[in-house]
Amino acid sequence: MQGKKLFLDKEVTRFRLSERVPPHNLYRRLAELVDWSFLYEETKALYSRTGQPSLDPVVFFKLVLVGRLENLVSDRRLVEHCALRLDILWFLGYEVDEELPWHSTISRTRQLFPAAVFERLFDHVFAQCVARGLVAGDRQAVDSAPVKANASLDRVCEKQPAGVHGPFLATGEPASTMPVVTAPAHLLRREAARQAKRRSEPGPLGAQHEKARLLSNKTHYSPTDPDARISIKPGKARALNYLCSLAVDTAKGVISHVQADFADSRDSLHLPQLLTGLQRRLRAHELRLRDVLADAGYANGRNYALLEAEQVTAWIPVFGQYKPEIAGFAYDPRRDAYTCAAGKDLPFHRYNVTADGDWVKLYWAAYSDCQQCPLKPTCVPGAKRKQLTKTIYDAAYRRAWQRQQTRRGQRLRRVRQSTVEPVFGNLLHHYGLRRMNVRGLAGAHKTMLLTAVAYNLKKLLKYRPQQHISLAMALPQPLLAAQTRAGRRNRCTEAPTRALAKWLLSNRTI
Prior knowledge:
This is IS1182 family transposase. The chain is an alpha+beta fold.
């Protein structure tokens, strides 16, 4: 007989939520894994002794972690999703008929808690990873990636000279209610002249991409999120972004440090701050950092010198512009001068600072020597004299360049790619880091910390230590030889017996 299910929507009188969550459920295992009670003490000073009870801080952190684990960016969607899941309700400590907090309460609580509380939660989970043997600490892979800010590029405003009020949008509309960001007038004039010169140059970029070229962090800012910066990634359009910097342990892929930075600065400028936080966390667990793996974006003379001072080996490829030897010029360390192919000296004159903060030494020849030299058309065709630059960290650069030429350097380059790049892919596509749901650099830092906590918790839940039990027993040599001879005799006598039995079975009659 055909069955038909009828839904009566009756009121259940006996229902226990814990009985509906199986033992192997993710959130049941997560509740048993982490002791959340320390959060009460960490946030106690942020509340008053009087007034209405606030949202439980443990419930808040569990809620935002669920958003990371479920790949939910919006707080509204997070509350709606949690109300439909029995396992999440049990994890949060809410009954089926109990209302969840409003999404605005979650946003206000996130702004109330400082970043130090989020870092304390990250350290707590990281300590469990160390205790379970997931962190070796001696080798860390470092990388960074842009994360979209919670602001639109179409609503950016022009910066006004100091003392001038009334910002305007990129479309020319006034925005009097928005905060004013000023810049020195001479820098704005210099940037306007540079852009006008580029706009007047012939080429396909002049008329097609005029608006995109006019948007710059030097002349524009976002009134919605002033901390967001205009940046571009190869192959993608410009956007308002933050920069997420990570350090990942190469043993099991656990995130050991995360921080939010401005997206308009070079990666190499953020390594000192990242190294300070990473060393503090590793030393707290008596772990020593020995190797740092990074790409060429972190190649910087100060970084090489800083890592050597910390007794850490820098496996960072030297940037392509660095050359250990300058072709056609011989260097004399005693006189600190170069000599060209024509025999003219290029002595040291002064120091200079590059865009990434690296100090270089400038060498140039005399004006009269270059003007009368027969090699000038090929040596310096468009300049008045020959000038050479040399970093003050040349020795550190040379040692790093020699390391990257070795087989170990090539192998560690592949280790870095297979360690930190998959972590970024998971965070961006599966842990809700594709776009910020908060504004400000502090809020972005909190979000990145929560995302790293969720990733490390997943690592803890999935980790199963492999225990190998060996039952091998060493036998004396005479006994081993006797057993070998006995085995050979058994195989020789068993072979004819098996052949005879096979012949009898194939020739039997019924």
